[in-house]
Amino acid sequence: MRDRAPSEICILVVDDLPENIQVVKALLEPHGYDIRTAQNGIEALEFVALTPPDLILLDLVMPGMDGFEVCRRLKQDPETWHIPVVIITGLTDREANVRAVEAGADDFLIKPFDRVLLRARIATSLKTKMLQDAVFAYQQELEDRVRERTRQLEVTQQVTVFGLSKLAESRDNETGDHIDRMRSYAYEIAQHLRVQPDFQADIDGAFVRQMYQACPLHDIGKVGIPDRILLKPAKLTPLEFDIMKTHATIGGDTLRAAEQAGGSVSFLAMGRDVAYYHHEKWDGSGYPFGLSGEDIPLAARIVALADVYDALTSARPYKKPFDHETSRGIILEGSGSHFDPRIVEAFLVCEERFKEIRKEFKDSGRLSPTQELISQLEAVEEPLL
Ligand SMILES: [Fe+2]
Question: 109 and 181 in one domain?
C-alpha cells in the first residue's frame, strides 16, 4: 500500500457556519490536505456523489437536513458507507452522541476541540480508510482474476466441444449445418419446457446453456465406426446397422472417461448423457440400453427429437429430404413410442421456429473433409476407390 501525499487526500468539512469552517481549514490546510467545504446537508451529499472524499468532518446541527440524516444516508449507501465520518459538534448531551453513533458516525470531536486531538483523530481515520481501500482493491483484483479464469475456462470448454464435434463431423456423411440446426432445435424446445410446470424443477438457464454446448457431442462416437459403414452411400445391412449403433456407447464411454479424468464437469456429464442415450426411445425400444420413459435423461430425450427432425428434413445418400409437414407427421406418430409426448407437444409449439432455423441454417452444401475427398476422387474418370 503506497502512502499518499497529503495533497492527494481530500477532506470534506460540512458546517453551516462559515467561521467554523474557517477554523478547521486553518488547522488542516497547513498540513497540505485538499480541503473542500459544504454549508448544508444537500450540498454535502451532492459533493460526495460527484467526488467521494477520503474523510468527512460533519457538523450535527444545521438548517434543513441535519448531520444525523447526512450521516445516515452516507452509511446506508453502498457507494459511500466506507467513507469515515467524524462528527464535530457542540452538542455534549448523551442522547445526541447515541443518535450519531446510531446514524453510523465513526468518531466524535466536541467543540471547542483541541487541535492536536483533531489532527490525531483525522490521521487515525485516514489510516483506517486507506487500509480499507487496500482490502477493497485486493478483493476487486481477486474477483477480476476469478472472472478472467472463468472466462478462459468457458472458452476452453467451447473450443474442446467445437474440436471434438468437428472431429466427428469430419468423418460423417452429414454436413456441418446439421450440428448448428440440431442445437438450435434443442435450444428452442428446452426454452419452452423451462417455463412448463412439469419441467421447471429440472430445466434452468444453466441446463439450457449446457445442452446447447453439449448437443454437438451426440454423435462423437462415430469416429469409432469404420468408413465402409459410416460413409456407405446406401441403406445399411442389419449387421452394419448393429455396428453403427455402437457409436452411442463409444461416444458415451469416451465422454465418461474424459469426465472421470477431469473431475465432474457439468457440460461433459450432459454430453455423456446425450451421446449415450440420444437413440433411446420413450417406449424402451431404442438403443443401446433399451431405457424407457423418464429413465432416459431429459437432455437426451430433447436431443433425440431434434436429431430425428433434422434427419427427416435433410437429404441422405439414400433418401430425399422430407418437407416439414411430412416430418411433423412422422414425429407426431412417434409421440409416446419414440418420443416423450411432452417434448412432442413442445415441438408443436415451437414448429414455426423450427422452420425458421431450417431456413437459417439451410444446407450450404458445405462438405466434411472426407466427403470433399470422396467427391474429388469420384470426379476423376478413372475410378480410384
Ligand atoms: Fe447418433
Answer: no
CA 164 to centroid of ligand 1, rounded, Å: 15
Task: State the pLDDT at residue 363.
Answer: 59
How far does the centroid of ligand 1 lie from the alpha carbon of residue 219, in Å?
5
Ion ligand 1: residues, Cβ under 5 Å: 219
In angstroms, the CA 111 to CA 88 distance is 7
Of 30, 100, 24, 111, the closest CA to residue 68 belongs to 100
Decide if 289 contacts 282 (C-beta within 8 A).
no
Q: How many structural domains compose the chain?
A: 2
Mean pLDDT of 29-41: 92
CA 351 / ligand 1 centre spacing (Å): 22
CA 167–ligand 1 middle distance (angstroms)? 15
Run of H or E residues at 220: none
Is 60 exceeded by the pLDDT of residue 98?
yes
Structural domain including 190 reads 171-379
Side chain identity, residue 207: F
pTM to 2 decimals?
0.61
Work out the percent of the chain whose per-residue pLDDT is above 70.
90
Residue 164 lies in a domain: no
CA of 326 to the centre of ligand 1 (A): 21
First and final C-alpha spacing in the chain:
73
List strands edge to edge, sheet with 10-14: 34-38, 10-14, 55-59, 85-89, 107-110
